[in-house]
Amino acid sequence: MYPFIRLAYGILRERKKPAIGITDTMETTHICWPWDIDIWMELNNGRSLSIYDLARIPLAMRTPLWKALREQGWLMTMAGVSVRWRRRVRMFDKVTIRSRGVCWDDKFLYIEQTMWKSDGECASHVLYRTAVTDKNGIVRPDRVCEAMGIPTQSPPIPDWVNAWIEAEAQRPWPPMQD
After folding, report:
1. Is the dihedral of CA 145, 150, 153, 159 positive or negative?
2. Cα–Cα nearest to 109, from 70, 135, 73, 148
3. Domain membership of residue 34 as a residue range
4. If you ran DSSP here, which 8-state letter would residue 35 be given?
5. Does 21 reside within a domain?
6. In a domain? residue 177
7. What's the Rg (C-alpha) of the chain?
8. Does the residue 132 lie in any domain?
9. Does 54 reside within a domain?
10. Which of 30, 48, 77, 103 has its CA 20 to 30 A from that of 129?
11. For the chain, what is the domain count?
12. 113, 108, 89, 90: which is closest to 27 by C-alpha?
């Protein structure tokens, strides 16, 4: 089940904090609870993405994006993710998630997040491709930027993000059509 209570708590915790820019880094803390673990007694890979959600939604709330979404009646959806897991997170481990917008192209916003253990080691890193949508489909990022009152020109797209964008463009859709 999706952690709605934890989401509500995170929203309440972050709602009165100062606003930040779309590319500023925000930190949130989380605990790996018994219901987050798998049979190997570590944070389940699917649940780790849900915990990243618990940090990404407050990130949107603290940026101009949240106001633009509400005023325009827009929604956000995930259109892709690249994950790199490197260190185990065990039950009751406290982690810090750092979240920030990285850049955007003609369709998507790219959000980077990292999960840090209390010993200072990075446990995992994700790059999300996010789309803002309305009843007609994807809302172009330049239009989203205008609604947020920020420049429409993206920060430079890092080489590693661009490589992922290019790799994703080569993947067949629909997949597995043998």
Report:
1. negative
2. 148
3. 4-170
4. G
5. yes
6. no
7. 17
8. yes
9. yes
10. 30
11. 1
12. 113
